[in-house]
Amino acid sequence: MRIRILIKTNKIPILYRHRVVSLFKEALKKSDKDYKKFLYNGKITKPFSFNLVLPPNRKSIKANIQIDENFGIEDTVFEIEEGYLSLFISALDYRFLISLFNGLKRLHTFDFSSDKNMLVNGEKLVWEIKKVSPLNERPIKSNTIIFKTNSPIIIEDENDKPVLFSDEKFEYHLNEITDRILKSPHIKGKVLEQPLKFEPIKMNKQVIKHTLKAFREKTGKPVMYLTGNSGIFKLSGHPKDLEILYKIGIGNRTGQGFGMVEVLG
Amino acid sequence: MEKVYLGDWLYNAGIVGFLNINSHLWEIKDKRLVSKNENLLKFGDNYIEFDRKIFDGFAERFFDYAFNQYGRYENLLKLFEEYIEDLNNSEDIENFEKLNKKYFQGKLKDNKELEDKLPIEIFDRFKKILSGFTLLKKKLKKLPSKNEIKKNKSSLGESLQKAIKIMKENKEEFWESDVQIYLRNIYGQKSFLNLSVNKDRFKKFFEDFEEPLKENKVKKDSKYYCISCMERKAKKNTIFDTGISKFYGLNPDSINFIWNFNPKLPLCEICEIIYFSYFAGLTPVKKDDKTVYYFVNSDSSIDDLVRENQLLKNILTTEISENILLDFFTQIILESSYREAVYTLQNIAVLELDLTNETMPKVYSFNLSREKAQFLKETKNKEDLRKFSKNYYKIKDTKISILPEIMYLILENKFYFNYLNKLLKFYIATQNNSKNYETNITPHQLQVLNSLIFRFLTNVIGGRTMKISENDMWTIYYKGKGLADLLKSKNAENKIQSISYKLLNALRIGDTREFMDILIRTYMAYGEEIPSSFVKTLSDKETFYALGYSFLNGLLGEENQAKKQEEVNNNG
Prior knowledge:
The structure holds two protein chains of two kinds. Chain A is α+β, with helices and mostly antiparallel strands. Chain A has six helices and 13 strands. In chain A, α1 runs antiparallel to α2 and α1 packs across α3. Chain A is globular and about 50 Å long. The model of chain A has no long low-confidence stretch (mean pLDDT 93). The C terminus of chain B is likely disordered. Chain B is an alpha+beta fold. Chain B is built from 24 helices and 14 strands. Chain B starts with a strand and ends with a helix. In chain B, the strands form five sheets. Chain B has a four-stranded antiparallel β-sheet with strand order 8-9-10-11, sandwiched between helices. Chain B is 56% helix and 11% strand. The chains are: A alpha+beta, B alpha+beta. At the A-B interface, α3 and β9 of A face α22 of B.
């Protein structure tokens, strides 16, 4: 199932994904603590992915983004005066959706910035949760689907190196990763019914700036650069598997807002 | 004094029957069987003892008992009188609805039609009764034709009057004949039941049984002792057809099964009359338009045996008024199953006999599992089941009572959520004023049914560990009610119908995702928190059904109905 969360705010820095994750954690903490623990205390594939859409009439400026106590960078911030953001979420697990929705209801507002983190030019940003609405999903019944990425797909090899759609080993790694993900008991509990076949139609390479606390502590760098794949492609496989991928997203880091896809045509 | 000990179930039924025929000689006092005249009848632990004087007047008591148990004579007298009354009342427009319903399932348009059709309908019914009642038919001689009745309605009334008169004037003859018809069905063609005996049947019984028993004049076999009691000398030349033959498959027609082709078997006259009385030990119960007979074979003592059967009889045959109430019959089914459960738990055998089959009566000994018996005996379950005694559903013109259907499903291990789905479909159809379906069940009752199914699955079927409790189910039920209230407060009451219908469909095909989709969409659309217990529905099908139906029942909550009714009343 897919939902859309309408958020009111006036600015958003280019580094936002980790804060969306925090929003989820906050909401889940309010409605279903056990489930929050299950999802976030340990490395577990998230049964969902998300995608934040900025309004077209945004203005991009350069501003100082205070990531945390130790790191601050100068980077892009979008100004969306009187504007709204749409956070789209696709999930396989109803427990996630129910708990998230109930949590957001109780939350009303979310502090995008705290006293020391994620300040933009020293200003604290707040998200106002305006509305949560359900969206229609396309039923998947055939073996081949044309997908369009809503957020870039990240495929990494065994050494955590990015693999591009143009790489001949892309399909191999895509299958490896998907098998690993589907095997999780809370996703499907079983590997792919048949191998996936990937055919790019109109794909591009895209580099995304992202940050995570663990990354900063480990590397001493404020920002990581992830190489992703976005655009339109054809994916073939068993409809059952395609449907799961449609719901949870494709590739690595889906829980951090990567790999969400939409059915085209 | 003659002693009669407890034996096989048929013999025990005979003892109970023998005592019932002689019911003037004993009573139950402080839950004990007490003789009123110890010179005639005494009770031992596992035997009864009586003097042969007990047979004085036995023939008449025997006939009376059979006559009453058959009950045809009295019932028909009443029915004929009813026919006459209805014919007389048919012109009165006030009675239109009642008579239209009683005879034509409410299909007639107006009183004119009723006046034309009622005499023909009653005439047809009357003729049908006569075709199974030769004695009355013969005595009535000629009946008016349909044309005559069309021209002159009173000719039918006169015929009915005549029938009543004949029955009353010849009561004795009808008494004899009905007893013969009734018992012949049960025993075959022994003595006065023989087809060739068509008059003085009572006299024949008196001469064959009462007199020789009373006077101890029965001729004895020189060699053999009775195979039943092993105490008394066998009666001379007894052919083994004293009612027991049907159960044991022995009669003169099947002599090729018997050693030396000799169907004579040694049985004493006392054991014979005991076997011959077994019909009076059975409790007739109407079930699915036919009569079946119950017997409890509690064979630990005479006292238990008589008291348990008495109890069963009291429960199962309370006043049957002429207008048979639906809930009475459906409750009987519940009570019989309940008693059966109690006996099963006490390790007592209950038998059901179908005597309508002419060649071979069928005996069903019930086989309830301990868990099922426990389930039926549980007070809460019984109370809950009783709540359905007046419920029905209708498909076109066929009306089906819900309680017997539930009992059948329980006994057959088929009590599951799909039954709930069916009833909900009828309920929603009724709300939409459907022409084809109708039911008087309420969402609250449906929720009680849901609980019952849940209990049945967890306690009887077993092997299922449910992650939810009945409390969870009722919580969700009230959440459903809450959503209905919310929709009403937002002037979206019309949405309840469409949402319920979609939920019902999702439940029917067991589609959890569809169900959750509808639910989440609805709650999101109205900005309300989604009941978190729904997360549990995803764990397995049974939990999904139990909670899903709870929610749906709540959503359909009867306040809707009550409110609607109020509106209808207010609007005239």
